[in-house]
Amino acid sequence: MTNLTVADIKLEAGIFLRSLSQRGINPLFGVTDGKAVGTYVEHEFHAHLERDYYYVIGSSASGIDFPELRIDLKVTSARQPQSSCPYRSAEQKIYGLGYNLMVFVYDKLDDGESELAYLNFVNAVFVEDKRTADYQTTRGIINILNNGANLDDIDAFLEERNLPLDDIGRRTLAEKIIADPPKQGYVTISNALQWRLQYTRTILIAGQIDGVDSLL
Predict the structure, then answer these.
(1) How many domains are contained in the chain?
(2) Strands 2-3 and 53-54
(3) I need a surface site. Which of 24, 136, 154, 166 has the fewest CB within 10 A?
(4) What digits encode the pLDDT tens for the residues 25-83?
Protein backbone atom coordinates (compact mmCIF):
# COMPACT_ATOMS: atom_id res chain seq x y z
CA MET A 1 0.00 0.00 0.00
CA THR A 2 1.33 3.44 -0.95
CA ASN A 3 0.09 7.00 -0.64
CA LEU A 4 -2.09 8.03 -3.58
CA THR A 5 -0.62 10.68 -5.88
CA VAL A 6 -2.12 12.71 -8.72
CA ALA A 7 -0.18 10.60 -11.25
CA ASP A 8 -1.54 7.42 -9.62
CA ILE A 9 -5.18 8.51 -9.68
CA LYS A 10 -4.98 9.58 -13.33
CA LEU A 11 -3.52 6.19 -14.28
CA GLU A 12 -5.98 4.23 -12.13
CA ALA A 13 -8.95 6.15 -13.54
CA GLY A 14 -8.27 4.80 -17.02
CA ILE A 15 -7.80 1.23 -15.75
CA PHE A 16 -10.96 1.41 -13.65
CA LEU A 17 -13.18 2.89 -16.36
CA ARG A 18 -12.10 0.39 -19.00
CA SER A 19 -12.90 -2.42 -16.56
CA LEU A 20 -16.26 -0.97 -15.49
CA SER A 21 -17.29 -0.42 -19.11
CA GLN A 22 -17.21 -4.21 -19.63
CA ARG A 23 -19.25 -5.07 -16.56
CA GLY A 24 -23.01 -5.62 -16.39
CA ILE A 25 -24.48 -3.80 -13.38
CA ASN A 26 -27.78 -5.11 -12.05
CA PRO A 27 -28.39 -2.37 -9.41
CA LEU A 28 -28.39 0.29 -12.15
CA PHE A 29 -30.77 -1.49 -14.51
CA GLY A 30 -33.68 0.84 -15.26
CA VAL A 31 -32.17 3.68 -13.22
CA THR A 32 -32.54 7.08 -14.87
CA ASP A 33 -31.35 9.25 -11.97
CA GLY A 34 -27.92 10.57 -12.90
CA LYS A 35 -27.07 11.21 -9.26
CA ALA A 36 -27.64 7.54 -8.42
CA VAL A 37 -25.38 6.48 -11.30
CA GLY A 38 -22.71 8.93 -10.18
CA THR A 39 -22.86 7.70 -6.58
CA TYR A 40 -22.44 4.08 -7.73
CA VAL A 41 -19.43 4.92 -9.93
CA GLU A 42 -17.77 6.98 -7.20
CA HIS A 43 -18.25 4.17 -4.65
CA GLU A 44 -16.76 1.61 -7.04
CA PHE A 45 -13.82 3.88 -7.87
CA HIS A 46 -13.02 4.31 -4.18
CA ALA A 47 -13.21 0.52 -3.71
CA HIS A 48 -10.79 0.13 -6.64
CA LEU A 49 -8.31 2.65 -5.19
CA GLU A 50 -8.51 1.42 -1.59
CA ARG A 51 -7.06 -1.95 -2.57
CA ASP A 52 -3.66 -0.41 -3.26
CA TYR A 53 -3.50 3.13 -1.88
CA TYR A 54 -3.78 5.18 1.28
CA TYR A 55 -5.66 8.46 0.94
CA VAL A 56 -8.23 10.66 2.68
CA ILE A 57 -11.79 10.49 1.36
CA GLY A 58 -13.52 13.85 1.15
CA SER A 59 -16.26 14.95 3.50
CA SER A 60 -18.92 17.62 3.44
CA ALA A 61 -16.46 19.84 5.30
CA SER A 62 -13.72 19.47 2.68
CA GLY A 63 -16.25 19.84 -0.15
CA ILE A 64 -14.25 17.75 -2.65
CA ASP A 65 -13.70 14.01 -3.07
CA PHE A 66 -9.91 13.85 -2.71
CA PRO A 67 -8.94 16.79 -0.48
CA GLU A 68 -5.24 15.92 -0.14
CA LEU A 69 -4.88 15.89 -3.93
CA ARG A 70 -7.26 18.84 -4.38
CA ILE A 71 -9.38 16.81 -6.82
CA ASP A 72 -13.16 16.73 -7.15
CA LEU A 73 -14.69 13.84 -9.10
CA LYS A 74 -17.67 14.44 -11.37
CA VAL A 75 -19.60 11.63 -13.08
CA THR A 76 -21.90 12.80 -15.87
CA SER A 77 -23.91 11.51 -18.81
CA ALA A 78 -22.59 11.98 -22.34
CA ARG A 79 -26.05 13.26 -23.32
CA GLN A 80 -25.55 16.39 -21.23
CA PRO A 81 -22.06 16.50 -19.71
CA GLN A 82 -22.54 18.91 -16.83
CA SER A 83 -22.69 19.09 -13.04
CA SER A 84 -22.94 21.63 -10.25
CA CYS A 85 -20.50 22.77 -7.60
CA PRO A 86 -20.69 25.10 -4.59
CA TYR A 87 -20.46 28.82 -5.26
CA ARG A 88 -17.65 30.40 -3.24
CA SER A 89 -16.89 33.66 -5.01
CA ALA A 90 -17.16 35.35 -8.39
CA GLU A 91 -13.37 34.99 -8.72
CA GLN A 92 -13.85 31.28 -9.44
CA LYS A 93 -15.11 32.20 -12.90
CA ILE A 94 -11.86 34.02 -13.61
CA TYR A 95 -9.15 32.26 -11.61
CA GLY A 96 -10.63 28.76 -11.44
CA LEU A 97 -12.50 26.71 -8.87
CA GLY A 98 -9.48 26.34 -6.57
CA TYR A 99 -9.05 22.60 -7.16
CA ASN A 100 -8.61 20.08 -9.98
CA LEU A 101 -11.54 18.38 -11.71
CA MET A 102 -11.71 14.75 -12.80
CA VAL A 103 -14.72 14.12 -15.05
CA PHE A 104 -16.02 10.67 -16.03
CA VAL A 105 -18.46 10.77 -18.96
CA TYR A 106 -20.67 7.72 -19.59
CA ASP A 107 -23.30 6.48 -22.00
CA LYS A 108 -25.75 4.14 -20.21
CA LEU A 109 -27.46 1.23 -21.92
CA ASP A 110 -29.97 -1.19 -20.37
CA ASP A 111 -30.17 -4.81 -21.55
CA GLY A 112 -33.78 -5.87 -21.00
CA GLU A 113 -33.04 -9.56 -21.54
CA SER A 114 -30.33 -9.83 -18.89
CA GLU A 115 -31.68 -6.96 -16.76
CA LEU A 116 -28.20 -5.49 -16.59
CA ALA A 117 -27.07 -1.93 -17.16
CA TYR A 118 -23.86 -1.14 -19.01
CA LEU A 119 -21.90 2.07 -18.58
CA ASN A 120 -19.77 2.82 -21.60
CA PHE A 121 -17.29 5.49 -20.55
CA VAL A 122 -16.77 7.55 -23.67
CA ASN A 123 -14.52 10.22 -22.11
CA ALA A 124 -12.56 10.89 -18.96
CA VAL A 125 -10.70 14.15 -18.46
CA PHE A 126 -8.50 15.69 -15.80
CA VAL A 127 -8.60 19.48 -15.62
CA GLU A 128 -5.89 21.18 -13.58
CA ASP A 129 -7.14 23.90 -11.23
CA LYS A 130 -5.53 26.61 -13.38
CA ARG A 131 -7.80 25.59 -16.28
CA THR A 132 -11.11 25.35 -14.37
CA ALA A 133 -12.16 28.98 -14.96
CA ASP A 134 -14.95 29.96 -17.36
CA TYR A 135 -13.93 29.83 -21.01
CA GLN A 136 -15.78 32.88 -22.36
CA THR A 137 -15.00 35.12 -19.38
CA THR A 138 -11.26 34.42 -19.38
CA ARG A 139 -11.08 34.59 -23.15
CA GLY A 140 -12.72 38.02 -23.12
CA ILE A 141 -10.44 39.31 -20.37
CA ILE A 142 -7.29 38.05 -22.07
CA ASN A 143 -8.35 39.58 -25.40
CA ILE A 144 -9.09 43.05 -24.01
CA LEU A 145 -5.91 43.02 -21.90
CA ASN A 146 -3.92 42.22 -25.05
CA ASN A 147 -5.60 45.23 -26.66
CA GLY A 148 -4.44 47.59 -23.90
CA ALA A 149 -7.48 47.54 -21.61
CA ASN A 150 -7.37 49.73 -18.51
CA LEU A 151 -9.16 49.41 -15.17
CA ASP A 152 -12.39 50.99 -16.45
CA ASP A 153 -12.47 48.61 -19.43
CA ILE A 154 -12.12 45.56 -17.18
CA ASP A 155 -14.76 46.90 -14.79
CA ALA A 156 -17.18 47.42 -17.68
CA PHE A 157 -16.49 43.95 -19.05
CA LEU A 158 -17.23 42.34 -15.67
CA GLU A 159 -20.48 44.30 -15.46
CA GLU A 160 -21.47 43.08 -18.94
CA ARG A 161 -20.77 39.48 -17.90
CA ASN A 162 -23.23 39.95 -15.03
CA LEU A 163 -20.94 38.48 -12.39
CA PRO A 164 -22.56 38.28 -8.94
CA LEU A 165 -20.72 41.32 -7.51
CA ASP A 166 -21.63 44.75 -6.20
CA ASP A 167 -19.89 47.86 -7.55
CA ILE A 168 -17.10 47.79 -4.94
CA GLY A 169 -16.48 44.07 -5.35
CA ARG A 170 -16.38 44.39 -9.13
CA ARG A 171 -13.87 47.26 -8.98
CA THR A 172 -11.68 45.31 -6.56
CA LEU A 173 -11.72 42.29 -8.85
CA ALA A 174 -10.88 44.47 -11.85
CA GLU A 175 -7.82 45.79 -9.98
CA LYS A 176 -6.73 42.22 -9.25
CA ILE A 177 -7.12 41.25 -12.91
CA ILE A 178 -4.90 44.14 -14.00
CA ALA A 179 -2.25 43.10 -11.47
CA ASP A 180 -2.61 39.34 -12.01
CA PRO A 181 -4.10 38.44 -15.42
CA PRO A 182 -5.90 35.07 -15.46
CA LYS A 183 -5.03 32.02 -17.55
CA GLN A 184 -7.42 30.73 -20.20
CA GLY A 185 -10.04 28.46 -18.64
CA TYR A 186 -11.85 25.66 -20.46
CA VAL A 187 -14.97 24.97 -18.38
CA THR A 188 -18.30 26.67 -19.08
CA ILE A 189 -19.61 28.08 -15.77
CA SER A 190 -23.15 29.42 -15.59
CA ASN A 191 -24.26 31.85 -12.88
CA ALA A 192 -26.58 30.28 -10.27
CA LEU A 193 -26.83 29.77 -6.53
CA GLN A 194 -24.52 26.88 -7.32
CA TRP A 195 -22.18 27.15 -10.26
CA ARG A 196 -23.39 25.03 -13.20
CA LEU A 197 -20.37 23.46 -14.90
CA GLN A 198 -20.55 22.27 -18.50
CA TYR A 199 -17.80 20.11 -19.99
CA THR A 200 -18.39 19.82 -23.75
CA ARG A 201 -15.46 22.06 -24.68
CA THR A 202 -13.23 20.46 -22.04
CA ILE A 203 -13.91 17.02 -23.53
CA LEU A 204 -13.21 18.19 -27.09
CA ILE A 205 -9.80 19.71 -26.29
CA ALA A 206 -8.60 17.09 -23.77
CA GLY A 207 -5.06 16.02 -24.57
CA GLN A 208 -4.47 19.05 -26.80
CA ILE A 209 -4.06 21.77 -24.16
CA ASP A 210 -1.63 21.95 -21.25
CA GLY A 211 -3.56 21.24 -18.06
CA VAL A 212 -6.47 19.37 -19.71
CA ASP A 213 -5.62 15.66 -19.95
CA SER A 214 -7.49 12.72 -21.46
CA LEU A 215 -7.53 9.69 -19.14
CA LEU A 216 -8.80 7.13 -21.67
Answers:
(1) 2
(2) parallel
(3) 166
(4) 999 999 999 999 999 999 999 999 999 999 999 876 668 999 999 999 999 999 889 89
Same domain, 15 and 111: yes
Of 190, 184, 186, whose CA–CA distance to 213 is shortest?
Answer: 186
Asked if 207 and 131 count as a contact pair (C-beta separation under 8 A), the reply is no
Cβ atoms within 10 Å, residue 174: 23
CATH of the domain at 122: 3.40.210
- Phi and psi, residue 165, nearest 5°: -140, 150
Q: What totals of helices (H) and strands (E) does the chain contain, helices first?
A: 7, 9
Q: At what angle do helices 135-146 and 151-160 cross, to 10 degrees?
A: 160
Strand pairing category for 116-127 and 212-214: antiparallel
Q: Which helix (H) or strand (E) holds 191?
A: none
* Residues 151 and 128 both lie in one domain: no
Do 105 and 144 belong together in one domain? Answer: no
